[in-house]
Amino acid sequence: MNAISNWSANRGVRLGAVLLLLVVLGVFPLLAQDYVVTTVSHIALVAVAILGLNIVMGYTGQVSLGHSFFVGVGAYAAIIPIRDLWGGPLAEGAIVLGFLLSALIPGVLGLLVALVAVRLRGLALAMVTIALPMIGLPLAQRFSEFTGGNEGVSIRRLSYVGSDGETYRGNPFAAPAGSGLANDQWQYYIIIAITVACFVLGYFLVRGKYGRAFAIVKSNEAIASSMGISPYRYKVLAFTTAAIFGGISGFLLVVWNQFTSSETLAFHHSIAYVIATIVGGAGSIIGSILGAVFYVVVDPVMNGLQLSIYSAIVQGVVILLILFLLPGGLASLPRAIRRLVRRGRTGRHADAGPEAGSASVTTKQ
Amino acid sequence: MNPFAEFAQLFIDALAQGSLYAALALAIVLVNQATGLVNFAQGGMAVLGSYIGMTIGNAFIPSVGWVPGIILGIVFALAASVVLGGVIERFVMRRFERAEEDTKVVATIGLFTLLGGLIGLIWGFRPTPYPFFIGGSESFWIGGVAISVWSVVTFLVIIALMIVLQILFRGTKLGLGLRAVADNASSAALSGIRVGGMRMIGWGLAAALGTAAGILLAAKSGLSPNNFDGILVYALAAVVIGGLDSPIGVVVAALGMSVLESLAGRYVEFIGHDLKVVVPFLLIFLVLIIRPQGLFGRRTVVRV
C-alpha cells in the first residue's frame, strides 16, 4: 500500500497519467459508437457547470440554488448572437462572440447577485439564489422575441445568405467539410477542448492562493478576517467564478444540442446540480467529473430499469445517504475504503483501536 | 368596473395569497429558532400533509357525511404533520446537528426531492381537487364590491393560527421551553429542559402550520406535488426581508410583499402581469443593501 501511495504521489507519474488521459480523450471518439461520444460530450459540459458550483459550494462552503439560471443565461447569451449573426459579415466570429458573451453576461449577473446576497452570513445566498431560476423562467418567457419563449431557439437549420446572394440553410456546429469528422465528433472536440481548459483553470484556482483563501473562509470567517482575507470579497469572487463556469457550460450545451429554451433555467436543474456536486464530492476536482457522470447517467439508467417514477426518490435517498455515510462524495470512496481496511486490520490486534479512533472523531466535530 | 371595487378585490386577494406566504415563512422561522437551519423541505412537508388530509377526507366523507369528513381530514392532516415533523427532526436532521450549515441545507434539499418523489409516486403528478367547505370561486358583495370568500377565510384562519401560536409561545410553559431552546440550547439543557423533545415539537408545530396553509391553497386550486414550490420562494423572500429571527417581521414582510406585487402588476404599466414576480426579488435586493439583517431582524455580533 505504501508503495502505491508513493508511486501516485510522484510528480512525473501524475503528469504521465494526465497526458495519457488527454490522448485517450483525443483518440476515443474516433473508435467509439455515436451515442457514447454524445454521452461523453454531455458529461463534459455538465462537468463544467458542476466544477463551477463546486468552487462556490465545495471550496467556499456557500450553497447556491440558482446555478441553472447561469447555465440557462449562458446558453441564451451564446445562441442569440449565433442565430442573428452567423453567416453574415461576422461569419464564424459569431460563435466566438457567443462564447465570450456566454462567459461575460452570467459573470456580470453573478457578480451583481453576489455583491448583494453575500452581505448576509450563512444561508442568505441559498435563500436569495433560489429566486433566480424562479424569476428567470417567467422573464425568459416574457421576452420571447429574444428567447423564443417555450419553443426555445434552435440553430440546427439556420438560414444565411451566402457570398453568391443565395439563401442557404446550415448548422453552425456541423463538422467542416475537409475534416472527415462526423458532426458529433466535431462537437465533441470543441466541447472537450473547452472543458479541459476550464478544468485546468479550475485546478490552478483552487490549488493556488485563491484556493487557500476559499478554504479559510469556509472553515472560519473570523480567522479569515484576522488574517487579512476578506470573506466578503472571496465569497463574491467564488460566486462570480461559478457563474462564469455555469455560463460556459451553457455555451457548450448549445454546441452539443444547437438548441436551448427557458426549460434550461428551471429550478429542478439547480437541485440536480447541487445533488450531483455532493454525490461526486464537494471540494474535489475529480468529484466534479463523477458528479457529472451521476447527473447524466442516473435518468437513462432509471428509465432502462423501468423505474423512472422512483427517480426523484432515489435522488433524495442517495443524497441523504451520501451526507450520512460518505460526506466527501464518491471522490472520497478510495480513501474511505482504505481507512476501513486499515481499521479492520488494527481492530483485530487491539480492541481499543477503533474506539480510540471514533472518540477522536467525535471530539473533532 | 369601478376603480375602487377593483382595488379592494386586488387588495384582499393579495392579503390572502400573502397569508399563505406568511404561514410558510413563519414555519421556516419556527424551525430555524428550534434547530438553527433553514428547511427547504417545508413546502414539500406542507403538501404531503395536505395529501394525507385529502385522502382521509375522501375516505370518510361517504360514511360520516360531508362536513364531519372534511373536519376529520383536517384533524388527521394536522396530526400527521406534527408526527412527520417530529420524526424528520429526530431521525434525519438530528444526525446533522453538528454538521456545517451548508450540509444541513443540502440535507433539507435532499428531503425536498425525496418528499416530492414520494408524493408523485403515491398520488400521481396530476392536480386533484381537495374536499373543502368552500372553493375558490364563491364571492359575496359589499357595497358593490365582490369579495372572494376563500380570500377572507384564508386570511382570517391564518391570522388566527398565528395568534394561537403567539399565545402558545408567550403564555405557556411549553412555549417558554421552546424559547429557551431557541435562545441557548446548552443552558436550556442545564436547567432540565429536554432539548431534543423541544426541537421535535418545534418541527411538528411548523409542519402543522405549513399543512394548514397547504389545505387552504388546495381548497382553491387543487393539489399537485409542486403546489408549494413557488410559495416557498416567496416565503424565503419574506424571511430574508423580515429577518430570520423575527416572526412578526416575516408576517408583515409576506403580506406587504404580496400586496405590493399585486398592485405593481396591475397599476405599473411596464411591470404588468408577467413581470410582477420580479417585484419581491427587487425588494430582497433593496433590503439586503440597506439592512442586511432584515427589516425587523437583530444584528448579531460574533465574538471570537
The rounded distance between the terminal residues' Cα atoms of chain B is 62 Å
Distance between the termini of chain A: 29 Å
Give the largest interface.
A-B, 46 and 50 residues
The tally of beta strands of chain A, per DSSP, is 4
Q: Which runs of chain B of at least 5 residues are low in confidence (pLDDT < 50)?
A: none
Return the average pLDDT of chain A rounded to an integer: 86
How does the overall form of chain B come out from the CA principal axes? globular
| Number of separate helices of chain B | 12
**Sheet with the most strands of chain A?**
2 strands, antiparallel
Major sheet strand order of chain A: 1-4
Q: Strand order, biggest sheet of chain B? A: 1-2
In terms of structural class, how would the helical and strand content of chain B be classed? mainly alpha
> Largest sheet of chain B at a glance?
2 strands, antiparallel
- Radius of gyration over C-alpha positions of chain B, nearest whole angstrom: 20 Å
Helix fraction of chain A by DSSP (H/I, runs of at least 4):
over 70%
Q: Structural class from helices and strands of chain A?
A: mainly alpha
Provide the low-confidence segments of chain A as ranges.
Answer: 350-365
**N to C succession of SSEs of chain B:** HHHHEEHHHHHHHH
How much of the polypeptide of chain A forms β-strand, as a percent range?
Answer: under 5%
Beta strand count of chain B: 2
Element-by-element helix/strand order of chain A = HHHHHHHHEEEHHHHEHHHHH
Tell me what the structure shows.
The complex is a heterodimer of chains A (365) and B (304). With 365 residues, chain A is mainly alpha-helical. Chain A has helices at residues 2-9, 11-31, 34-59, 67-85, 93-117, 124-129, 131-142, 144-147, 183-207, 209-219, 221-226, 231-257, 267-280, 285-304, 311-325, 333-349, 352-364; strands at residues 153-154, 158-161, 167-170, 259-260. By secondary structure, chain B is an all-alpha fold. Chain B has twelve helices and two strands. The longest helix of chain B is centred in the first third of the chain and has 33 residues, at 3-35. The N and C termini of chain B lie far apart (62 Å). The interface between A and B is large, with 46 and 50 residues.
